[in-house]
Amino acid sequence: MTDNYNNNIQQIDIDKAWNNLHARLQEDNLIPIAEKERSIFAMPVFRWAVAAMLALCLTTVVIRYFVPDRHKTPLLSMRNNDADNTLVKTLEDGSTVYLAGSSSLFYPSRFAKDSREVVMQGNALFDIAKNPEKPFRIETKKIIVEVLGTAFNVKSDAKGSFELAVLRGKVKVTQKSNGEFAYVVAGEQATIVDNHWQKTKYTDNNLLESFTKHMKFKDEPLEKIVQVINRYSQRKVALQGEAIKTHKLNVQFYNNDVEGMTKVISLALHLKREVTQDSIFISQP
User: Fold this and answer.
1) Fewer CB within 10 Å, N or C, the chain?
2) Counting beta carbons within 10 angstroms of the beta carbon of residue 11, is it exposed (0 to 12), middle (13 to 18) or buried (19 or more)?
3) Which domains are seen in the chain, by residue range?
């Protein structure tokens, strides 16, 4: 994908683009009449300005080529530059992405009718909502990951190295270069050795904890934050009242202790917290 957009950029005729821009400025009467007899591109400052504008346009093209857009749907981007915390995002289908440091995710605000597609680079844990009619597809630099509903960890860097570990369910991984694919099930991990898939047993029992120990949320509705907390906590959190579910919150948790997390939420949003033996209730005061 990267090679494609590099080739496209190299084929752009810069002089032709300048001439087109000049014609548009003349058409809109943005060039003084006295100046029209001179070549506007002979002016160094203007030439650099046009070059900067073209560079901006090319940057946009680069992003759109890097991020698949098969359904012509604008994609949102999320990047975690914090090496010590996991950025958590729940997508519109209910799937949750735990993004580690120096990692990026591109995703649509709403998925297409027949598929769910995202692009990622870096290290992320995916907990995919099950939907047999809409497979979930993750595209990395060299690999395509396809699932129906499962939990797994993907590592893929800019150089193309790849590693996948499945915690729950079954995942299909396919190499873009040669089409070779493999199915990876819970308890297995897959890497590429000499352009071929190699599967081994996965033994890291602390993988889930490493992603959930220090979580942060950015502009997330309270309802989705609580859903993430309930997924890994024995003591469940219940929101009482529809109004508080949509409250958005920027918050960072330094451990995955449910009591500590609900205290932070209650203080930040000025809500009431009631603790029982089995549950924690959050409501309007």
Assistant:
1) C
2) exposed
3) 2-66 (no CATH), 75-207 (2.60.120.1440), 214-283 (3.55.50.30)
